[in-house]
Specification:
This protein has 529 residues and is mainly alpha-helical. It has 2 domains: 211 residues, no CATH class; 253 residues, no CATH class. The protein has 24 helices and 5 strands. It is globular.
């Protein structure tokens, strides 16, 4: 029977004649994940009625750890460490710009493309799991913009250094970040920015320009808060992370009247995203910049450890725009997977032939991208309507849509990392040679022998990669069920009836997306570089 199941699973793999593709997840791992998903689903159905809406998130302050606690607290309350790291990342960023503009245009020989698309983007998403949104603290886009506008290396800038206008209410949301994410994806996959060092450099420069203009016009850091697709992605995923900046003693914050964490001091900038540490419940807009840790007169803010996923399970409260950003993340991560499949280009060529689209077939790609993005959104919307019908919930469709959105986030996060592991472990081969010659001077495109050697000798054995990918998909499914199990009873408290059937709509959606992610990981994936 098991052999029959494995045979059926293998029949779902697309067999391609492409020479250099990443091997897909093996049938053994897929079967193990599917069986585990079935067991977890049964657990969900059986224990739904015993779920409780009350939960206290346990925090352990790193500053109170023996031996290293005092050192950690000294590091985060002084600006030296963050400033040095911002200088380093900015130097690397300027190197990327220079290499992209003036170096070879062979993508795999230029540090602009290899570092940005193979290492940085994969690494920064993976880093969320360990350090939350800490990348935002050392982001070179924000660092360079801040130095240009504030004209200070780390101290608070002069009030006349920018117009400091209040951000208009109409743009105080993250719809713009979602639009930016869609546009960046279109440029990356449709226009081919990932294979062009010159275009990569121009795109990086454009983002710095946007951050600088925003800082010169608006108060604090409107670009980081409302517009930056990377920052909002890390902020969304940050709710899963087991680490966050939080008060050491909540009573100290409760009795604080001066709110330096929000207003800043003479030397330290105010919170760039308008957060008050004493009332902070979720990581979504915290950029881990260190302003609050440096300005707090009581040194009452530190990195805290908590259980993985506790924040998005128990305390996060997504708004309408945030819930759509989460659904956009899911759609775009799945879309990335589809575009790496050998048959995607065949589909696009067939669509272009039908439409009479020629040249770069950007129109056909745009239509394909739109359809690929709409399908998960329509399925989710249908499941929300189905859920309201089963429960008889009197809340608005919009409220239920937002309340259930967090169940989707672990699915996007898990597949996002699992998909990028193949790129990271296979396409980073030879990166040392690029570091030694970042401009790719006097180099040629990879020979077929070099491509073959990279393909046959990944940095990490395939079996280890498969184990990590399977574990990630199962982790995303488990965490999605955990969130659903906690949040579904809350809907019954606002006018709906809870039964075991109530779980079916969202369980169906979570299971379907997880199986789609598994199926994508099974397929051979075209190497990007």
């Amino acid at each position: 029977m098991i052999e029959s199941l494995l045979s059926h699973i293998n029949s779902l793999v697309y067999h391609t004649t492409e020479g250099m593709v990443h091997p897909g997840l093996s049938a053994d791992w897929v079967l193990l994940v599917l069986v585990s998903m079935a067991l977890l689903s049964a657990w969900m159905m059986r224990t739904l009625s015993s779920a409780t809406s009350q939960h206290t998130i346990g925090l352990v302050s790193l500053s109170r750890l023996p031996l290293i606690g005092h050192t950690i607290q000294n590091m985060i309350t002084h600006p030296v460490v963050i400033t040095v790291l911002r200088i380093i990342t900015s130097i690397v960023f300027l190197l990327v710009i220079a290499a992209g503009l003036f170096g070879t245009q062979v993508a795999e020989r230029n540090i602009a493309t290899t570092l940005t698309w193979t290492l940085w983007w994969s690494g920064v998403v993976i880093s969320v799991f360990f350090v939350g949104s800490a990348w935002c603290a050392i982001c070179p886009w924000d660092a360079i913009a801040t130095w240009l506008v504030r004209r200070r290396l780390w101290k608070r800038g002069n009030t006349l250094s920018s117009l400091n206008l209040k951000v208009p209410k109409v743009i105080r949301n993250i719809w713009h970040a979602l639009i930016m994410f869609v546009v960046l994806t279109w440029l990356e996959l449709g226009y081919g920015v990932t294979t062009s060092p010159y275009a990569t450099a121009l795109l990086a420069l454009l983002i710095v320009v946007l951050a600088t203009i925003s800082l010169a016009i608006y108060e604090r850091k409107a670009f980081c808060r409302y517009f930056c697709a990377v920052g909002r992605t890390l902020g969304a995923y940050g709710g899963i992370a087991p680490i966050a900046l939080r008060p050491i003693d909540n009573n100290v914050c409760a009795n604080c009247k001066t709110l330096e964490c929000y207003k800043g001091t003479d030397d330290i900038e105010p919170c760039p995203t308008h957060l008050v540490m004493g009332s902070l419940k979720q990581n979504t807009y915290c950029t881990s910049c260190g302003a609050c840790t440096q300005s707090c007169p009581h040194q009452n803010i530190s990195w805290q450890l908590r259980n993985i996923g506790d924040e998005i399970t128990y305390s996060a409260r997504p708004h309408w725009d945030e819930s759509w950003f989460i659904l956009g993340l899911l759609s775009l991560t799945i879309f990335h997977g589809f575009t790496m499949m050998p048959y995607w280009e065949d589909w696009m060529r067939q669509l272009a032939y039908i439409m009479g689209d020629s040249g770069r077939i950007l129109t056909s790609f745009s239509i394909g991208m739109l359809i690929a993005m709409l399908i998960p959104l329509l399925l989710y919307s249908g499941c929300i309507a189905w859920l309201k019908h089963i429960m008889g919930n009197q809340d608005s469709w919009r409220r239920v849509f937002s309340a259930m959105a967090l169940t989707v986030l672990p699915l996007a996060f898990a597949y996002h990392i699992a998909h990028n592991l193949s790129h990271l472990f296979r396409e980073s081969q030879g990166f040392l040679s690029v570091v030694l010659n970042p401009f790719g001077t006097n180099t040629q495109p990879l020979s077929m022998h070099e491509i073959h050697m990279r393909h046959m000798n990944p940095l990490v054995d395939d079996n280890i990669v498969f184990a990590l990918q399977a574990t990630l998909i199962l982790f995303g499914f488990w965490l999605a069920l955990k969130i659903l199990r906690h949040r579904l009873p809350q809907l019954s408290h606002s006018g709906g009836s809870l039964s075991r059937w109530s779980v079916i709509p969202m369980l169906s959606f979570i299971s379907l997306i997880s199986m789609v992610n598994l199926w994508l990981l099974m397929q051979p994936m075209i190497m990007r570089m």
